Amino acid sequence: MLRAKTRWQLAACDETRASELARECNIPPLLAKLLIIRGIDTPERIHAFLNVSIDQFHDPFLLDGMDVSVERIRRAIADGEPICLYGDYDADGVSATTLMIHVLRQLGAVFDYYIPNRFTEGYGLHTDALKTIYDRGFKLVVTVDTGISAAEQVAYGQELGLDIIVTDHHEPPAVIPDALAVMNPKKPGCSYPFDMLAGVGVAFKLAHALLGQPPMHLADIAAIGTIADLVPLVDENRLLASFGLKALNQTRHPGLKALIQVCGLEEKELTAGHVGFGLAPRINAGGRLETAEAAVRLLASDDVKEAAELARTLDDLNRERQELVQTMTEEAEEMVKNHFPADQNSVLVLAKAGWNVGVVGIVASRLVETFYRPTIVLGIDPDTGMAKGSARSIAGFDLYEALTACQDLLPHFGGHTMAAGMTLPVENIERLQERLNQIAHERLAADDFIPQTRIDSVIELDAIDLETVSSLQRLAPFGMGNPTPLVQLTDVYASGMRKIGRDDSHLKCMFAAEGEGQSLDAIGFQLAPLMERLTPGARIQVVGELSLNEWNNQRKPQLIIRDLAVPHKQVFDWRGSREKQQKWLSLLQGANVATAVFHPENYQQLQQCLAQLEISSCLLTDGAEIPAEAAGADTLVLYDLPQQRAALEELLSGMKQTERLYCLFGDPEFSFEQLHFPSRDQFKLLYQIFRQYGQVKKQHLDLLARKQRWTRATLDGMLAVFVELGFIREEGEQFSIHPEPQKSALDSSPLYRRWQEQTELYTELLLSSQEELTRFLNQWWPCTTA
What we know:
By secondary structure, the protein is of the alpha/beta class. The chain contains 27 helices and 26 strands. The protein has five domains: about 55-315, inorganic pyrophosphatase (n-terminal core); about 340-450, Roll (Diaminopimelate Epimerase, Chain A, domain 1); about 455-565, CATH 2.40.50.140; about 570-670 and about 765-775, P-loop containing nucleotide triphosphate hydrolases (Rossmann fold); about 675-750, Winged helix-like DNA-binding domain superfamily/Winged helix DNA-binding domain (Arc Repressor Mutant, subunit A). α5 packs across α13 (about 295-300). The termini are close together.
């Protein structure tokens, strides 16, 4: 048995409707099914989804406040009045700021921009910054990706004499700023037909209104913020990502070209993944470690040389950021393991002086991946006594709602369901932890702490062909709201399993169904350790992503494995291993393992090994009662062989919760002759020798064994049986025939019976095939279905 890492949830779909749409739209049935699951369930909507066009952008003036904003900005441009853009330091904020820089340049505006310093000012509008902006002669401020929670700051700015236009996309608080205009599709009363735009998406709509048409020449910049901010890639976000990725692949912006080059992506067809894991982290790096100035200048630059230098600067900062994240993550993981038992803490709140607040969000995400609990990571400033940080959540726990219930502890916070930022006094941290744990206890069940994998479809191998797999790319770009399709294969068998990659960390294999000729190539990145947990005949349930593998001008369907399970118990045939102890130690890593050791010398050796390595693991020995922790082990190792069948039966019947059984017994130098049990004729021949000669000296036993072509062990065993039955006597350096032996049957000897039973047992255990061995052990350790 092998349990899946996540909870699998199969999406509901009307199969009849899927078949109808497949025929009507002339698309493969799987593609039709995936579209229905995503809510695209009519021919018209399918056509629009699969064929994006500029006409699909909504009228920007449907955004509440757009008419006032456009009139005021145009008046400022016409009068030569300077405009200040007030942005944010993340990839979305930088993209939004840069997009507006290009638009205002195009319109001939007099303008500048201001982005707060994450470390000295923090997120959002600040009164000191607004005072500085006013003192520099600005009368109009346009925020991008910020401002919706800044009612107090906006009021202060307007008292100074500033006109403030807020463009934002974050969750609105109860009190909306009383600005000249507030554009946020989430704002109560706003009739805009799509409310999931990123900050750069709202800026794009403002640009659309100012220019009178969608600014498609800036779609590449809009795509970066849209993808980086993890907004759902549907509706207008899908348009921005789709057109933006096409533009990125042929961009003329010097900054973007330089950024693509330092990422090593200039020869690749850029996807949403390249943006999310390549471009965006480097844009973010400046604001995380220093300021966002370099990132804004890069995306706004028209100078090739300057762009190359700025791109290298961001690349260097990103490497520094990666090292910092790794160090902080290791410290945080150690803190969780030592101070946050899973049975007591549903939410992790971690804080430490010196932690860089620029990367706490990334660290929080890493911890959620590892521990799958809502997580807050805070950096403490000892001078101010304040903690500043970021939070990441899990499905089913609305982070913004939970933090709102704790707002009396949080002077400043903001965000949405899955992510948030906050500032609070150090003395409130413990109370925040307690309050959030209480909220989580009320709202989350045990299953909520197991990650969930949403499966689009269970599919048969014979339904997977080049046309079907190719058609899935029409759903791209993939991301939040439009995830990469995942399919499940049921009851398939893996063959050709091998480890690949520079450090043998990836798993490569082929899946086939029983009795079918069709097979499917598969690869599991970072899944090489699964090789040791899958037996050759295992019935596998696997979830993965269908893709096309192109190699040597050949295109073949391939499955990228995301998760897999084996619903039955497994017997692993590691008999006769030459690296027995090393293999045993490898099994102890990260598993609940019990080891059965029947021979005292092996038991002592393994005890010493565990003590030297300071490893805690349960060793079971012959005749000892199975302790509770061993009976609950998911893995059992048979390190050596029992003498009797009863010992093996008693052991296996007591290990009811064990899912995997590893057979490590067997000598690599094993010979079939070692399992020889003498026939009655051989016993008869030996007795005749004694009757003829009367005695045999021990020094001649080796010669006797060779002459009769017996092993010495076989001869010694027969002699022991004869002594036990009183047929011969052992007298010092010789064996002599008993002058008056009692008449007894051979099988009346306990030694004879034990020897015969042991030989039969060892034959079953050592000479059987993998399939025969499994059947034999399952007499007492039956296979069950999960």
